[in-house]
Design goal:
Distance between the termini: 45 Å
Strand content: under 5%
Structural class: mainly alpha
Order of helices and strands: HHHHHHH
Mean pLDDT: 78
Helix content: over 70%
Length: about 160
């Protein structure tokens, strides 16, 4: 990856990209907010609960960004995507639980599909790594189709 190629730590990568991301957000954020909500963010009357929610949201965003940058150079692209889907599911569940957002059937089915995909990925990833570890210990070399349990059902049934 580019991070490894330039020998950057996650905090260095974050420090180099955060100013540009912040500038883009300051420029584009109010205009996009106007398009979505129909009102300018500058006309919002700030209250103590509103400020508390804003500060909490900023703190959570910073924590999410830091955690993503820490994971960026350490995990594969697929694992990083699984973490991203986990974050999305948690955001949707939190908005339903804390903010009492309505949970539509579409959201619930999407979250269920994402979780099923994550569980499947974890299962097949652990099955694949455990079988390759056993193969390395026993000195047996297997083809790619023999290592995947879904693809070798017909070969097992014909051998039995």
């Amino acid at each position: 990856s580019i991070q490894r190629q330039h020998k950057l730590q996650s905090h260095q990568l974050l420090a180099n990209t955060a100013p540009l991301q912040g500038a883009m957000l300051l420029v584009l954020g109010p205009a996009i907010d106007r398009l979505v909500s129909g009102a300018w963010v500058g006309r919002y009357s700030l209250t103590a609960p509103g400020l508390a929610c804003l500060l909490l949201s900023c703190a959570i965003s910073v924590a999410v960004n830091i955690s993503q940058f820490m994971c960026l150079g350490r995990f594969s692209a697929v694992t990083f995507q699984v973490l991203g889907h986990t974050k999305t599911v948690l955001v949707l569940l939190t908005s339903w639980w804390v903010l009492h957002e309505p949970m539509s059937l579409r959201k619930a089915m999407g979250m269920a599909l994402a979780v099923a995909g994550m569980v499947s990925y974890g299962y097949f990833n652990s099955t694949s790594s455990s079988s390759s570890n056993v193969d390395k210990l026993s000195g047996v070399e297997r083809s790619a189709t023999e290592q995947l349990p879904l693809f070798n059902r017909s070969s097992k049934s014909s051998q039995d």
